[in-house]
Design a protein that fits this description.
The chain is an alpha+beta fold. The protein has twelve helices and ten strands. It has a seven-stranded mixed β-sheet with strand order 1-5-6-10-9-8-7, sandwiched between helices. A three-stranded antiparallel β-sheet has the order 2-4-3. α2 packs antiparallel against α4. The chain binds phenylalanine. The site of phenylalanine has 11 residues, from β9 and β10. This is Phenylalanine--tRNA ligase alpha subunit. It is found in: Cytoplasm.
């Protein structure tokens, strides 16, 4: 043999491969060359027994090599066919759109609050979320029998250690460290044992401001807050100061803005009140100033605090405070 036979077979294979345009045609080729019954390779193998042993070994090895080569070439041809069948890639087409992340609405509003006050000369400060009774209550003139200190309202981690219920604790920490004039704002997470519903959450954010220096009066407080409230809401607002009580301010006030839906005429969305309460404020209580070593005869100050969620809800018309914590991208993607 058989060398010529092998060469002939290779030539035939090359011809067959060149002509095969489909997988079915390749399969036919495979049967023609490697098929058990009448495959061309079998013809050669069948002739082996008539050869002298020496030649038999040589031809047998050659036939095996040939078998492997046929298999390889069939597989190559199959891959080539498949590649040709794949759709052509147009590299000039734009790719699929990339989903860009958005800032959380609380981040957006928080930054805006800080920025408005920075432009008015206030500096940003931070304080810890895990606080002591002293900073959260005592130093803020909130005596130990005050209802806010009740276990029902405050998360205690250990006796005397708690999760801050408001950011007013930061007032004390700043005044202990810094001498008047003090003009600061702070922002951070607070905790209260409130049952969760559309307007209550056991964790929320407060934004707080404090200004203490010689001659600071309620007029300054009103001026600063009016300017702030006009800037922060995207609609015109009238403001209303009503008397209130906080242990750490005297006098104290609650501040409302005219309802953006009815312009203070009264409608269901403001509870027929005409105004929406947005923050608490007042003149820093002389006892608080004394607690941090300031002389209330020399300096006076004002403070204010508000819920960041509440401001965001009014600004964007968000009806349920729980949306801020759920991280539903359908909600979050609406803000930028
Ligand atoms: N800390 C008060 C609260 O949580 C808000 C407040 C801050 C009131 C500063 C007066 C002055 O309701």
């Amino acid at each position: 043999m058989p060398k010529e036979m092998i060469a002939k077979l290779e030539a035939e294979l090359a011809e067959g491969l060149a002509a095969a345009r489909t997988e079915a045609a390749l399969e036919e080729l495979r049967i023609r060359f490697l098929g058990r019954k009448s495959g061309r390779l079998n013809d050669i193998l069948r002739g082996l027994k008539d050869l002298p042993p020496e030649a038999r070994r040589e031809v047998g090895a050659a036939a095996n090599r040939l078998k492997a080569e046929i298999e390889n070439r069939l597989e190559e041809a199959r891959l080539r066919l498949n590649a040709a069948a794949a759709p052509e890639v147009d590299l000039t087409l734009p790719g699929p759109p990339v989903r860009v992340g958005h800032r959380h609405p609380l981040t957006l509003v928080g930054r805006e609050l800080v920025s408005i006050f920075e432009k008015m000369g206030f500096d940003y400060r931070e304080g810890p979320e895990v606080e002591t009774d002293y900073y959260n209550f005592d130093a803020l003139n909130t005596p130990s029998n005050h209802p806010a200190r009740d276990l029902h309202d405050t998360f205690y981690l250990a006796p005397g250690v708690l999760l801050r219920t408001h950011t007013s604790s930061v007032q004390i920490r700043v005044m202990e460290r810094e001498k008047p004039p003090v003009r600061i704002v702070t922002l951070g997470r607070c905790y209260r044992r409130d049952a969760q519903d559309a307007s209550h959450s056991p964790t929320f954010h407060q934004f707080e401001g404090l200004m203490v220096e010689k001659g600071t009066s309620f007029i300054h407080l009103r001026g600063v807050l009016n300017l702030f409230l006009e800037k922060v809401f995207p609609f015109p607002v009238k403001t209303r100061f009503t008397p209130a009580f906080f242990p750490f301010t005297e006098p104290s006030a609650e501040v409302g803005i005219s309802c953006p839906v009815c312009q203070a005429r009264g409608c269901p969305s403001c509870g027929h009140n005409g105004f929406l309460e947005v923050l608490g404020c007042g003149m820093v209580h002389p006892r608080v100033l004394k607690n941090v070593g300031y002389d209330p005869d020399k300096v006076t100050g004002f403070a204010f605090g508000m819920g960041v969620e509440r401001i965001a809800m009014i600004k964007y018309g968000i009806k349920d405070i729980r949306l801020f914590l759920e991280n539903d991208v359908r909600f979050l993607h609406q803000f930028s």
